[in-house]
Write a structure and sequence with these properties.
It is a single chain. Helix 4 (119-128) crosses helix 5 (138-148) and helix 13 (332-348) runs antiparallel to helix 14. The chain has helices at residues 27-38, 54-64, 95-101, 119-128, 138-148, 162-171, 196-199, 204-207, 217-225, 227-239, 278-286, 317-328, 332-348, 354-366, 376-393, and strands at residues 17-22, 43-50, 68-71, 90-93, 109-112, 132-135, 157-159, 179-186, 247-251, 257-263, 268-272. Helices cover 41% and strands 15% of the residues. It folds into two domains: 17-160, 3-Layer(aba) Sandwich (Rossmann fold); 168-329, no CATH class. Strand 2, helix 2 (54-64) and strand 3 form a beta-alpha-beta unit. It is α/β, with parallel strands linked by helices. Residues 157-240 form the 1-deoxy-D-xylulose 5-phosphate reductoisomerase C-terminal domain. Catalyzes the NADPH-dependent rearrangement and reduction of 1-deoxy-D-xylulose-5-phosphate (DXP) to 2-C-methyl-D-erythritol 4-phosphate (MEP). Keywords: Isomerase, Isoprene biosynthesis, Magnesium, Manganese, Metal-binding, NADP, Oxidoreductase.
């Protein structure tokens, strides 16, 4: 089901909007808090979830007077800093505690900024509880889109990724049947234009030097391999109910065009703006309205020329692997995502080379049986098996 099945929003938004931010200490989570900081009359931060960042969570909870804080890591239970949480703030621990925040009666909107496959549990919980879901966890849509999307009602899930937010905005008021192609733009990462020979000895520090966006380490490495764009292709396939062969990648180095939709009559709509993740975050929280800008607008008279280029899927083979996984479907995207998370982490630890990331993912995909997606328990097992297999290919 597309998130544009009809125009009537089904999820309730109170004013101020009562928000739970999952993955609050990550890049998207921190930028979400900054958006909330700018609109205290429009947003109430009710709940925060982090993995183990106690100091960060305590500081944020006090700033926003949160009622609930959850830690995925149960080992922080005895941290003395928890004593200075706001009076009456309820604290919980473990992965199920994070999921429980998505089901709270006091919450209207769940910002899911949990990194990796783990975010699907909270995503499903939020959807089933009828919450507005501001979604920044692309991996869980890649892994479990077949389970999540049939449950999503129109107006309930608003994408936070800049590319999918752009597509969402371009499709407002349009008939999805009129889509010819969707163009996801891509900065090309720090290694655009390099050959495979030039990528043999690049380091994690080299790969983390993204030219335009400020993001967490995992996603920044994914941008360097172009796996991030591959994940986004599969995400767009699920979000907008679009066949994989109608999705294109355009390398756009200036990161001003955030994505485009081409229609059957040849018209193209694009969403443009500054390279600032707070913009799509703000739109997800304000939808169907728009709030005043909090970032500096682009001075179009002064900006560099806007260019486009082809994505090199031979040099950056992770993009081709993701396109293949999305086309085959079933559990293959889950297998691919699990292997990539293992390889990405191994590269950041110095246990494999940059090009090994692609090799590890390909070997894992080739050695795995593809099944039809049945339920979350199956995906959990497939994910675990793929991770174990991928680890056997590291070093």
């Amino acid at each position: 089901m597309s998130i544009f099945e009809d125009t009537a929003p089904h999820a309730v938004r109170h004013e101020p909007l009562r928000v739970a931010i999952l993955g609050a200490s990550g890049s998207v989570g921190m930028q979400t808090l900054d958006v909330c900081r700018h609109f205290p009359q429009k947003i109430e931060v009710v709940a925060l979830a982090v993995r183990s960042s106690v100091e960060f969570a305590v500081k944020a909870a006090n700033e926003f007077n949160c009622k609930y804080v959850a830690f995925a890591d149960e080992s922080v239970k005895d941290n003395g800093l928890l004593d200075v949480l706001p009076q009456g703030c309820e604290t919980s621990f473990g992965s199920k505690a994070v999921q429980a925040l998505a089901e709270l009666d006091e919450v209207d909107c769940v910002v899911n900024a949990v990194v990796g496959e783990a975010g699907i549990y909270a995503g499903l919980a939020a959807v089933k509880a009828g919450k507005v879901l501001a979604y920044a966890n692309k991996e869980s849509i890649v892994v479990g889109g077949d389970l999540l999307m049939p449950l999503v009602k129109p107006g309930q899930l608003i994408p936070v990724d800049s590319e999918h937010s752009a597509i969402f905005q371009c499709l407002i008021g349009e008939n999805p049947a009129d889509i010819q192609r969707i163009w996801l733009t891509c900065s090309g990462g720090p290694f655009f234009g390099r050959t495979r020979e030039e990528l043999v000895h690049v380091s994690a520090d080299d790969a983390l030097a993204h030219p335009t966006w400020k993001m967490g380490a995992k996603i920044t490495i994914d941008c360097a391999t172009l796996m991030n764009k591959g994940l986004e292709l599969i995400e767009a396939h699920h979000l907008f109910d679009i066949p994989m062969d109608k999705l294109e990648v355009l390398v756009h180095r200036q990161s001003r065009i955030h994505s485009m939709v081409e229609f059957v009559d040849g018209s193209v709509k694009a969403q443009l703006g500054a390279s600032d993740m707070r913009l799509p975050i703000q739109f997800a929280l304000s939808y169907p309205h728009r709030w005043p800008a909090i970032s500096k607008p682009v001075e179009w008279q002064e900006t560099t020329p806007l260019t486009g280029d082809y994505a090199d899927e031979k040099t950056f083979g992770c993009l081709a692997l993701a396109r293949h996984a999305g086309t085959v479907g079933g559990t293959l995207p889950c297998i691919m995502n699990a292997a990539n998370e293992v390889a990405n982490y191994a590269f950041r630890q110095g246990r494999c080379s940059f090009l090994d990331i692609e090799a590890i993912v390909a070997k894992t995909m080739n050695a795995s049986e593809v099944q039809r997606v049945e339920d979350l328990q199956q995906l959990t097992l497939v994910d675990a098996q793929a991770r174990a297999l991928a680890r056997s290919f590291v070093g």
